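Instructor's aside before we start: the two examples that follow are unrelated to each other. I chose them only because their records fit on one page, so don't look for a connection. First example below.
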Amino acid sequence: MSHYLLSVYDTENQVGGAPSTPEDRQAFMRRVIALEEEMDKAGAFVFGGALHGPDAATVVRGGTGLDKVTTDGPFAEGKEHIGGFYIIDAEDLDEALEWATKVVEAINHAIEVRPFRATGRLEDGH
């Protein structure tokens, strides 16, 4: 099994196809919960989450002491930023793309799929 990152990008705090009414938000959450349950049952779900907007970001540059610089805002200035993601286990890119298709169907928004190279410890044996 390989890990893949499924990234959801926002454009200036607006996700295309995002729900706008309470009823739409409930239906959206039901689709996302069902998708995550399906991923979990299939053994593909490793981790996922949504990020706060880029205005909540802080960038740290430099080393320690006087060399360290922190700035408010995102690392890169731009209209698009990562709004959420999944880390999944998949046999290969084709299987990752199948899960990506299900994510797109659940959230009604395009995503990016990239191989993920874990450099640290993942829990639950992943």
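Example two begins here.
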Amino acid sequence: MTRFNVNAARAQRLEADGADWEFELDDEVFRLPREFPRAMAKQLSQIDDNDIDGLLEVLLGEEQYERFNKHTVTVQDVAALLEAYGKETGLPLGEG
């Protein structure tokens, strides 16, 4: 019986897709994780479905979240961003 190697599978995924998914806003680049550590997944599960800021804060991290907040972004912008992120990474978010 063949043994499944988690580390090898992770390395293949990250080599194929990279560790981060990037988006641009007003000539500034932001990065979201392609894969969530379990601790982040737990944080995300505790956020209310309607808490857009809470979701973004966890995904972006403190430094990026502060930079992101300096931009004028609509709810529709965030919805489009999360939809694109979900399609690209297979991690649909913000669907309540």
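The first helix runs from residue 6 to 17.
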